[in-house]
Amino acid sequence: MDSDDIPALSSDTLAALQSFLAEKQELDDRFEKLKENAEEVFQNNQKINMSDFQEDWQLSQFWYDDATAEFIARRALEHTSKDDCIAFISSPTAYVAFRNMAPERKNAYVFEYDQRFDLFKDQYVLYDFNKPLDFARAKEMKGKFKFIVADPPFLNKDCLSQTMETVRWIASKDVKIMIDTGAVMEGLAKELIGARITDFHPAHRGGLSNEFRCYSTFEDKSLQWV
């Protein structure tokens, strides 16, 4: 093909592309800085900002807005004591909000496929919902968790079902569970784990086209079944 036949980008398209690449580079640089300084950040109990983690849409990552993340984290904090184990499965936004609220709580874990979150060291569990019982310390964690938050990354039966297999494995007898997923999953969430739809509507920073809802196995003054 002659070079003259190669279509050129318009000035507006080129400017938009350059802006996108510059923003991506800035976010990459911010994460690398966080990773380099992670030890100091954790030792000094400094707050972590989810904006330092760029969403990866190929992994179906859509971060909660601050109000949603803090609401979920608050439920976990209010329903557990300092020695209780808490799991945030495929829900790193809520985990970071919880950690910012209670950095002294070392029994809160983020189960996540994205290995950027391994900077949380012992509180990070590499997790793939396709292998729901194949994760580090699985035997040790069986039946240990008093509060579990799950946000399966994909809106389909297999993803929710396999995530709930993990939930059942790590759940204590008196566990409290929150599931944040699409409205279309209501029947399956109830069938699999007995979770009921609530009056809380999770929201995401960039917005989502699918209606998102919260399901739970418990109620409190701020979270009611409908």
Give an account of the 3D structure.
It is a single chain. The chain has helices spanning 11-36, 38-43, 66-78, 92-101, 138-141, 157-170, 186-193, and strands at residues 85-89, 108-112, 124-126, 145-150, 171-182, 196-197, 212-216. It is an alpha/beta fold and 226 residues long. The chain is built from seven helices and seven strands, in the order αααβαββαβαβαββ. The longest helix has 26 residues, at 11-36. The protein has a seven-stranded mixed beta sheet, with helices on both faces. The model has no long low-confidence stretch (mean pLDDT 89). Helix 3 crosses helix 4 and helix 6 (157-170) packs parallel to helix 7 (186-193). Helix content is 36%, strand content 17%. It is globular.
Task: Summarize this structure briefly.
The chain is an alpha/beta fold and 226 residues long. It has helices at 11-36, 38-43, 66-78, 92-101, 138-141, 157-170, 186-193, and strands at 85-89, 108-112, 124-126, 145-150, 171-182, 196-197, 212-216. It is 36% helix and 17% strand.
Radius of gyration, in angstroms, nearest whole number? 19 Å
Low-confidence stretches: none
Q: Structural class of the secondary elements?
A: alpha/beta
The biggest beta sheet is recorded as: 7 strands, mixed
What helical percentage do the residues reach?
25-40%
Helix tally?
Answer: 7
Q: Order of strands across the widest beta sheet?
A: 3-2-1-4-5-7-6
Mean pLDDT: 89
What portion of the residues fall into strands of 2 or more residues?
15-25%
The run of helices and strands is: HHHEHEEHEHEHEE
Instruction: Note the gap between the termini.
Output: 63 Å
Give a count of the beta strands, DSSP E runs of length 2 or more: 7
